[in-house]
User: Fold this.
Amino acid sequence: MAKRKIDENIRIRLQEITGAPGYNACMAEELLVQVRDDLEIPDEDLGYPERFFDTLEQMYNDHELGISGRGNVIGAAQLGYVTGIFRGNAKGFGFLTPDPAFTNKYPEDLYIGRESTGGAMNGDRVTVRVNTRDARRGQSGRPSELRSAEGSVVRINERALKTVIGTLQCEIPFHKRGAKRWYIEPDDRKLSLEVLLNAQEIGDAKEGDKVEAEITRYPKPENPDAAGKIIHIFGDAQSKQANYDVILHENHIRTEFPPEVLSDADAQAARTLTLDGRLDLRDKIIFTIDGADSKDLDD
Assistant:
């Protein structure tokens, strides 16, 4: 099923309206008017109705809303569903951080067991069906504290990751006829999976290299590992340079610049410096904890 384009402002407002404690289920046309008024969308915006109903339909597909037998729109909480962001754990289980519209009913994160993640990865936007909300009993037999609600991921609405960075690993089969198994062990410990690779597409990468792979197949309940294709090789994972390069890459810090920028930088560096407006401390003894090769002496 093709995914409808969602207007995020409309989605959030629909969540707030249908998730409010006093919400009475009503027809979509009534919500159309209410959302327009709440968001102060002008009548001249002729594209608004289409955006509204596209968003409404996609929210229905994502279990964020429901439709009653009378055609009224029902909030996800009334249906036993909650939407939010999945937070993974190295041990395979995770937690759902509910969207703001659900925090009144679920002020704490919902626990998602490792068998109930539905193939979700850390950071994914998901819909969860609430399974239990009971009390944990202490040794006295009396409820000592409320246990966090538990749930199961029923739909992954939006994937957070397009690529994964990690260390390239290779498993040698016990039998001579078996094929080597290549995979990436992610740096992010919240990703409890391996990214499998086609042995024919390893290219120049070597076992133990730090690499980035584009995800070509996401995890599923029946197959918890992902698959990918190497798109960047940083070098030996044990080297400082490879790990420096990963940090720069992950934070989108440019290290290559066009010739005109480099030319301008050279011209600025060649300028003669004067003491105008500066305090000359060159004849003073100054202690610093920075190394001799430091670029920024700020202590």
